[in-house]
Amino acid sequence: MDPSLAIFALALSSATLALDNGLMRTPPMGWLAWERFRCDIDCTHDPSNCISEWLFRDMADRLAEDGWRELGYVYINIDDCWSSMDRDKQGRLQSDPHRFPGGIPKLARYIHDRGLKLGIYGDLGTHTCGGYPGTTLDTVTIDAQTFADWGVDMLKLDGCYSNGTVQEEGYPLMSKALNATGRPIAYSCSWPAYQGGLPPKVNYTQLGEICNLWRNYGDIQDSWDSVLTIVDWFSTNQDVLQPAAGPGQWNDPDMLIIGNFGLSLEQSRSQMALWAIMAAPLFMSNDLRALSNEARAILQNKVLIGINQDPLGIQGKRLLKEKSRIEVFWRPLSDSASALVFFSRRTDMPYRYKNALSQLGYKDGNYKVYDVFTGKTIPVLTHDAYFTVSINPSGVVMWLLSPIVHSGQAHERENLSLLHNHIE
Ligand SMILES: *[C@@H]1O[C@H](CO)[C@@H](O)[C@H](O)[C@H]1NC(C)=O
Ligand SMILES: *[C@@H]1O[C@H](CO)[C@@H](O)[C@H](O)[C@H]1NC(C)=O
Ligand SMILES: *[C@@H]1O[C@H](CO)[C@@H](O)[C@H](O)[C@H]1NC(C)=O
Ligand SMILES: *[C@@H]1O[C@H](CO)[C@@H](O)[C@H](O)[C@H]1NC(C)=O
């Protein structure tokens, strides 16, 4: 495969009609409560971790003060278990009065004052997954208007306690209802995850027209197993999923769990690298008040974020599954750049993987290579020169490659054998 042809084909395929709210032209970034804080509503015994306005204010402070906002992490998203068990007299959803005494509008102001955006959670069904009031077809309009009135910037609409018929009607209906409020509200649809994530039950053309992002598959858990299951599902089905993504419309493999308990350092790097290749939304679900320096460095890696946020918005793919249990992922980027991830599924020791760019579909020429995690550079790598990378078990080596296009190519070719030795 010639990557230049592939880029052309991919660019054409992602030129579908995106949801016309102007939002999320690159994958959204921020923080989402669910994976780390779930439905902890015990503010008496666990006040600093319970789902409450204090938790979201704490996280907003951290995003604003610890350098996250400037990197693009701007969404603070509430998930399930925020609401009261009853709607108010006008039939509107209302937040739990004890855990959100200031109400959502006040929390929205707090978040907006810090240059951030607020996301909220609803469920198209009789109840949310946690048993709170759901949004039935007859309350879609009033709920959209309530969220808009509160100053909400994003809605994740889950799909517990409903069925295919309700979802087929309700997800497009909510998209229209959000638009009708006049407030730009990004829309995350859990619909495909409830329909198996694949055609013919899932119509990705339609999803791109009504949602900004969508959960294709099951929830992430705080474990490496969970990350691998997700990566495998997305890679196995990449020919269906990859063309669905583009500016304003993203596949969502779910939250980043980096900084929690389930991933080693290598595995944390792997999640971040693979999410960048997949053009995935980067919603951290961790405790930003108590993050290790290692986790922070991974999540705040500017080059990695730049790859995730590439303006072309073309989702990458797995190119190769080697017998050695090394997998190679690739994503085309703007200005003819590209990213490669060499991912080890091995469990023994660092593996010395040898290949040449020409074997990975790169065309004639010289490339400058930047190693995203070590910061080392290979000034010139010719397409047909063999290189070796040492990949740790369950870890990655990630490269950003830019073609070198100037007249000095002959010189650089001569130096190749010399440079070749610097690659590891
Ligand atoms: C609503 O949709 C129209 C047409 O699709 C679009 O031009 C407009 O920006 C949308 N408004 C909002 C608030 O999403
Ligand atoms: C789906 O749910 C709706 C609302 O609860 C119900 O009226 C309808 O009969 C259900 N349809 C199927 C096929 O189960
Ligand atoms: C999928 O949705 C698109 C856009 O809404 C529509 O034109 C197309 O007919 C649908 N495809 C199928 C197989 O239903
Ligand atoms: C390549 O070789 C030329 C001349 O032999 C030298 O001037 C140049 O610095 C070398 N470039 C690199 C990147 O080593």
UniProtKB/TrEMBL annotation:
<dbReference type="InterPro" id="IPR017853">
    <property type="entry name" value="GH"/>
</dbReference>
<keyword id="KW-0378">Hydrolase</keyword>
<keyword id="KW-0458">Lysosome</keyword>
<comment type="subunit">
    <text>Homodimer.</text>
</comment>
<keyword id="KW-0732">Signal</keyword>
<dbReference type="Pfam" id="PF17450">
    <property type="entry name" value="Melibiase_2_C"/>
</dbReference>
<dbReference type="GO" id="GO:0016020">
    <property type="term" value="C:membrane"/>
</dbReference>
<dbReference type="GO" id="GO:0009311">
    <property type="term" value="P:oligosaccharide metabolic process"/>
</dbReference>
<feature type="signal peptide">
    <location>
        <begin position="1"/>
        <end position="18"/>
    </location>
</feature>
<dbReference type="GO" id="GO:0005764">
    <property type="term" value="C:lysosome"/>
</dbReference>
<dbReference type="InterPro" id="IPR035373">
    <property type="entry name" value="Melibiase/NAGA_C"/>
</dbReference>
<keyword id="KW-1015">Disulfide bond</keyword>
<dbReference type="InterPro" id="IPR013780">
    <property type="entry name" value="Glyco_hydro_b"/>
</dbReference>
<dbReference type="InterPro" id="IPR000111">
    <property type="entry name" value="Glyco_hydro_27/36_CS"/>
</dbReference>
<dbReference type="GO" id="GO:0004557">
    <property type="term" value="F:alpha-galactosidase activity"/>
</dbReference>
<dbReference type="Pfam" id="PF16499">
    <property type="entry name" value="Melibiase_2"/>
</dbReference>
<keyword id="KW-0325">Glycoprotein</keyword>
<keyword id="KW-0443">Lipid metabolism</keyword>
<feature type="domain" description="Alpha galactosidase A C-terminal">
    <location>
        <begin position="313"/>
        <end position="395"/>
    </location>
</feature>
<comment type="similarity">
    <text>Belongs to the glycosyl hydrolase 27 family.</text>
</comment>
<dbReference type="GO" id="GO:0016139">
    <property type="term" value="P:glycoside catabolic process"/>
</dbReference>
<protein>
    <recommendedName>
        <fullName>Alpha-galactosidase</fullName>
        <ecNumber>3.2.1.-</ecNumber>
    </recommendedName>
</protein>
<dbReference type="GO" id="GO:0019377">
    <property type="term" value="P:glycolipid catabolic process"/>
</dbReference>
<dbReference type="InterPro" id="IPR002241">
    <property type="entry name" value="Glyco_hydro_27"/>
</dbReference>
<dbReference type="InterPro" id="IPR013785">
    <property type="entry name" value="Aldolase_TIM"/>
</dbReference>
<keyword id="KW-0326">Glycosidase</keyword>
